[in-house]
Write a structure and sequence with these properties.
The two termini are 56 Å apart. The chain is an alpha/beta fold and 470 residues long. It has two domains: 283 residues, P-loop containing nucleotide triphosphate hydrolases (Rossmann fold, 3-Layer(aba) Sandwich); 112 residues, no CATH class. It contains 17 helices and six strands.
């Protein structure tokens, strides 16, 4: 952590604590994944072939070989979906063409080589998170990623039948059947490709009987038995590939996402850290960074991969800001004034009313605070226009404060508003400010401001009402 700096312990800055990472998963903990985990970063840069070929083979391996892992469906579900991060919409569009043609072809090669079921291009298994989608479409896709899991078809069958399905890598009903419950052409080809001995073992595991007929009849009998076995099973619309741009960097917190492939080094180190942090938040995560050897920047990051990842927080770029801009002053300056007045003048007193007895002292304290802020502005070397903006806003704050103090004399007239809007405070709580904006007839409208009580209160939500006309 860069901010805030640690005090006595480098792993404890009060605001955050370093969490110990343990990648060793005891057998008894496998189902629940009850330990704390982090992310494993792997850098990949091809030599002798293009970056496109690397993407085809890497994504094919990640999506195909999971069908051959000897794990229960709950564990496999955590690594079933592969998140792919792209630096531009152009790169995302190029990858879509690979998903439709090159990747299914290479998956077929892997499936036949490993003896696990494979499937051709299926648009239903690809999901996108980018600015090309509407807000509703993005939310629908996020809900699908978070709430839709593997259908657990292997838990509804006997032990031998489960072993048969496991041996050929069937994870979903749709691995074998179309939506109309007819067999996939790819699955038919896959069964015909298997040698006779393996087919007979599968037949015996599924039916409990030996098979002695010719091979053509064996193929048909085996396909019919598997179809009958999976026909009643439920099948959720589980996505296996998620293509995304930098919009996933903030706000995406989905436990099922634990593998991410980052195509090329992002322009900003902060963006790389944020994007890779979408995985491994609850379960062990894997970050696969693929680099293009034809790009100097990618090659440099690959050569310094270990050193960079041991301390990549120190390379985070500082954000550019515009201090003392009018929107920033209007949003935050009154919070600073209230806090300083509480410290310098009112102390433990909860009554901030300006009366005839304390008016001179309050004005003097406000003038000192105004001079303090202006002095900091001058030390900063800001332009003269910034100083005029600060003076105007501070003057408005003092006038509104006096107005509110006078309105409090007539406080009984506002019993209706007292509990939800006034609350005996000089300011609105941020969560109640929106309620006030929706009620222009509320007292103190335009005078009372929302003071930020947390660093998270940066932006207010906007309530939009859609009018419909017949």
């Amino acid at each position: 952590m860069q901010f805030p700096p640690p005090a006595l312990d480098a792993d404890d800055s009060f605001y955050s604590r370093k969490k110990p990472v343990d990648y060793v998963i005891p057998k008894e903990d496998r189902e629940g994944f009850c330990r704390a985990f982090g992310r494993l970063y792997l850098g990949i840069m091809p030599s002798g072939f293009t970056h496109t070929v690397t993407m085809i083979r890497l994504v094919s391996v990640l999506t195909q070989l999971i069908h051959g892992l000897d794990e229960n469906d709950e564990v496999l579900d955590k690594y079933y979906n592969v998140l792919l991060y792209f630096n531009s919409l152009k790169e995302l569009g190029k990858f879509r063409t690979l998903v439709q043609d090159d990747i299914p072809a290479y998956r077929k090669t892997l499936g036949l080589r490993t003896g696990t079921v494979y499937q051709g291009y299926d648009n239903e298994r690809f999901i996108e998170l980018s600015s090309q989608l509407s807000g509703d479409e993005i939310q629908t896709n996020l809900d699908n990623l978070e709430k839709t899991c593997l259908s657990q078809v292997r838990t509804q069958v006997s032990k031998n039948q489960k072993e048969a399905l496991l041996s050929i890598g069937v994870l979903r009903k749709s691995d074998v059947l179309y939506q109309n419950n007819s067999l996939h052409d790819e699955f038919i080809d896959f069964i015909q490709f298997l040698d006779r001995d393996r087919k007979m073992i599968l037949f015996k595991l599924i039916t409990g009987q030996e098979y002695y007929d010719d091979e053509d009849n064996l193929n048909k009998a085996l396909l019919d038995k598997i179809k009958i076995l999976l026909d009643p099973a439920e099948d959720n619309n589980v996505k296996q590939l998620t293509g995304a741009t930098n919009m996933i960097s903030v706000g995406v917190d989905i436990p099922r996402l634990n593998i991410i492939e980052i195509t090329g080094q992002p322009k900003m180190h902060a963006e790389y850290i944020q994007a890779s942090s979408r995985v491994g938040r609850y379960y062990p995560g894997i970050v696969l960074a693929t680099y293009n050897s034809a790009k100097n920047r990618d090659r440099s990051h690959y050569e310094k991969f270990s050193d960079f990842h041991r301390a990549f927080y120190k390379d985070v770029e500082s954000n550019s800001v515009t201090p003392y801009s009018v929107p920033a002053l209007e949003k935050a300056l009154h919070s600073v004034v209230y806090a300083l007045m509480r410290k310098e003048f009112f102390g433990d007193t909860n009554d901030a009313t300006i009366t005839t007895s304390n008016e001179n002292e309050v004005n003097a304290a406000l003038d000192r605070i105004q001079q303090f802020i202006i002095q900091r502005l001058n030390n900063f070397g800001a332009e003269e226009a910034f100083g005029r903006n600060v003076n105007e806003i501070l003057t408005t704050i003092k006038e509104n404060w006096k107005t509110l103090s006078q309105i409090q004399i007539f406080y009984p007239e506002y019993d209706y508003w007292s509990s939800s809007y006034f609350d005996d405070k000089l300011y609105y709580d941020p969560e109640k400010y929106l309620q006030m904006l929706n009620n222009p007839d509320a007292p103190f409208f335009g005078i009372k401001k929302a003071a930020m009580t947390s660093l998270r209160n940066v932006e207010n939500n906007t309530s939009i009402q859609i009018k419909r006309y017949n």
